[in-house]
Amino acid sequence: MSTPAPPLLQASGLRKRYRLRSAGAVRQITAVDDVSIQLVPGQTLAIVGESGCGKSTLAKLVTQLETADAGELVFDGRPISIRSRSERLRFSRDVQMVFQDPYGSLTPHFRVGSLVAEPLSVHRLASATAVRKRVAEILSSVGLGPEIAGRFPHELSGGQRQRVSIARAIATRPRLIVCDEPVSALDVSVRSQIVNLLLDLQRDLGLSYLFISHDLALVDHIADTVCVMYLGRIVEQAPAAVFFAAPRHPYSRALMSSSPVPDPRRRNNAPAVQGEVEAGAISTGCRFRNRCPLAVDRCAQSDPPLDPVAPGHLVACHRAEELGTRALWTAQLG
Amino acid sequence: MISDASAVLTASPVLDVRDLTIAFRHRAGPVQVVRGVDLSVGHGEIVGLVGESGSGKSIFARAILGTLPRQAEVLEGKIAFSGSDLRRVPPSEVRQLRGDRMALVPQEPMTSLNPALRIGRQLTEVLEVHRPEIGSAARTARAIEMLDLVGVNLPGERLAQYPHQLSGGLRQRVAIAMALICGRVELLIADEPTTALDVTIQAQILDLFVRLQEQQRMSVLLITHDLGVIAQTAQRVAVMYAGELVEVAGVNELFAMPHHPYTRGLLDSLPRGGNAARKSHLPSIEGTVPSPAAPRQGCAFADRCAFRVDICGRRAPMLEATTSGRSVRCHRWQELADRFACRDAVT
User: Fold this and answer.
1) Rounded Cα gap, residues A46 and A254, in angstroms
2) Rounded to an integer, what distance in angstroms lies between the CA atom of residue A165 and that of residue A159?
3) Helix or strand run (H / E) with residue A310
4) Which of residues 272-331 of A touch B (CB under 8 A)?
5) Which residues of chain A from 192 to 251 reach within 8 Å of chain B, CB to CB?
6) Residues A81/A83/A89/A95 CA torsion (nearest 10 deg)
7) What residue ranges define each of the domains in chain A, with the CATH number in brackets?
8) Which of A189, A199, A261 sits opposite B52 (nearest CB)?
9) Burial B33-44, CB ≥16 within 10 A → b, else e
């Protein structure tokens, strides 16, 4: 966190509301609520949380697939909002995305060669004669042979398809790739191959990743910084080493102790939290309080701000201070 | 929490599958997706069946339940449930067993619950079919009791709701209530029951499974691709690869000392976290699962195996019993067991 390098991407106060129509009534859901993040060049920022926490909406805001209702996005020192047309095109080259489902994200009637060539032609990155060679280079850098270029997506395995998605993403030589659960749909034995590929590409190309995942063990392995989101808000943000050594927010703790550890000697005794995420259930105070085993009166009165508890470690919990010092955890959360 | 697996196994098992082979009919001839699987589930035992997609684990479950898709058929083998061979029992009787003495909890209850029926109706319907002697008022009372048992809040009000009005976690609880409502379930088959759920909800549902299994003294076959889920709930584990069981062992033994190179590869490839390993390469199993239609010679895992020797490509290994009551399908297991030993899972 102490890296002096200017951030590649800085988002401040991002907010996105959606209108939902359910049972005739229209209600508003704030999917992302006052979220600020910062991405350092060459590093990985992981966004962790359960469904409905706003992590995928945040990804869409960062990639400009959706426009934020409020807040500012600064990429490479320039606010997105004041960019010219050519600068916007440049942004769409610099920021790419890899999705969870390699089945749904590749056009089925295009051959792999065309799929990988497409971003090259859109951004005029290779002449017609050089395209074939460049596609072969890109395929090779994601561990695929040139013969794959002639195949259709349905002829590939899940792992190969995800490699093709990654090939498309790196074709424009981006600086930031937003990865939305990139290995969740893959089989265990293939998952680590793709994780290794992402790590190699980051090292070789100096990429930054905004890595969205629900898998804490994986995040622990690849992230430099971790943000935990709950119902649209960041509730904890810390360098990965600090976070995994001592998560401070009760929700972070709950996530961690709910993750099934692949070790039968370390079985969870009881579920860490009861209840489920309910959007709109809480209008005042802390959004996690109805599930929080440590909630007190204060939690119902005001929404805790995301405040630093140590350099680079932010927590949105009224009890963050005492939770850092007292052994409340062992007593109440197990 | 783990009861002694050996004590459990002395009684005759609830489910005893022997040499089960299942094939899909295909223009080019039958394609075997489950090959000679032997697996038993003892009384009150939770057996985990782990495998990747296409390993044949779900088709195996459907064969037991008698719900194979039309293009699939059992070629060989025996499925003994509480002593009777289900392959010799008429389909109408298997249908009677299903939902009564054996039941399924599917991955995504949205697909198994009828979207057009209220929760109450779906629950009481099971009783109408299997327990016709129970009157209508008692059926409703039983439905409420079951919802309460599986931790659904406001059970009375839920009866009038439709599946889409419930969250994924609640729907899965309803599916579990439906599976257990007859009160005579001996074998519960759960096929990826928590895969579609968030991690805090997964922890709640797994806890529910373990509690219900103890309370109702039922047996559970838990099918999953998630080794974490297995480690947290199962007593015994069977590992399936390309239609075959490659290893069967008690959960502690399997995780402490996997014998098969595939099991070992799976366990090693899991990220363990920690600062020392951060951003380093994860061990991985190269290549992909072979197609079930591909001709097979020798060990199915040979192409991907780091310990492959000549014989692996020529002769298919048998599932062999080891000295410690485990079984493993590998020519080199004895020699490798020493090498894989002392690997400490997580400290």
Assistant:
1) 17
2) 10
3) strand A307-310
4) 272-274, 276-277
5) 192-193, 195-196, 199, 214, 216-218, 220-222, 240-241, 244
6) -60
7) 9-108+172-245 (3.40.50.300), 248-334 (no CATH)
8) A189
9) bbbbbbbbbbbb
How does DSSP classify residue A153? G
pLDDT at A322: 86
Task: Pick A68 or B275 by higher pLDDT.
Answer: A68
Backbone angles phi, psi at B78, to 5 degrees: -130, 135
| Whether A200 contacts A35, CB under 8 Å | no
Q: What is the mean pLDDT of chain A?
A: 90
The rounded distance, in Å, linking the Cα atoms of B60 and B238 is 12
Helix pair B168-180, B119-130: axis angle to 10 deg: 20
Residue of A nearest to B232 (CA): A267
- Percent residues over pLDDT 70 in chain A: 95
Please indicate whether, in this complex, the C-beta atoms of B255 and A157 are within 8 angstroms of each other: no
Burial class of B324 by CB neighbour count within 10 A (0 to 12, 13 to 18, 19+): exposed
Interface of B with A in 304-323 (CB under 8 A): 304
- For residue B231, the SS3 value is helix
Report the 10 Å Cβ neighbour count for A8: 22
CB A51 within 8 A of CB B198: yes
Radius of gyration of chain B (CA): 21
Q: What is the mean pLDDT of chain B?
A: 90
B278 contact residues in A (CB cutoff 8 A) = 220-222, 240-241
Query: Is B18 in contact with B47 (CB distance < 8 Å)?
Result: no
Closest CA to B231 of A159, A160, A12, A264: A264
| Residue of A290, A214, A210 lying closest to A41 (CA atoms) | A210
On the question of pLDDT at A30 being above 60, the answer is: yes
Rounded to an integer, the average pLDDT of A281-299 is 89
The number of beta carbons lying within 10 Å of the beta carbon of residue A103 is: 15
Q: How far apart are CA A72 and CA A15, in angstroms?
A: 9
Q: Looking at this predicted complex, what is its ipTM?
A: 0.86
Nearest to A99, CA basis, from A9, A31, A164: A164
The residues, ordered by sequence, that sit 6+ positions from A75 with a Cβ below 8 Å of its Cβ are A8, A9, A10, A91, A94, A95, A176
Contact between chains at B271 and A195 (C-beta distance less than 8 A): yes
State how far the alpha carbon of B38 is from the alpha carbons of A57, A131, B15, B80, B239, in Å.
47, 53, 11, 11, 12
Cβ contacts of B202 on chain A, cutoff 8 Å = 258, 260
Phi-psi region of B198 (alpha: psi -120 to 50; beta: other; left: phi over 0): beta
pLDDT in tens, B240-294: 999 999 999 999 999 999 999 999 999 999 998 777 789 999 999 988 888 888 8
Instruction: Work out whether strand A44-48 and strand A25-39 pair parallel, antiparallel, or are unpaired.
Output: unpaired
Beta bridge partners of B23: B32, B73
- Give contacts of A 42-101 with B, CB under 8 A: 50-51
Tokens representing residue A243 in the block: 């976070």
**Residue A232: closest CA among A283, A285, A287, A272:** A287
- Measured between CA atoms, how close is B9 to chain A, in angstroms? 20
Taking an 8 Å cut-off on Cβ atoms, the answer to whether A267 and B231 are in contact is yes
Distance CA A295, CA A316 (A): 13
Which residues are CB-contacts of A56 (< 8 A; sequence separation ≥ 6)? A180, A212
| Core vs surface per residue B47-74: b (16+ CB within 10 A) or e | bbbbbbebbbbbbbbbbbbbebeeebeb
Q: What are phi and psi of B51, to 5 degrees?
A: -175, 160
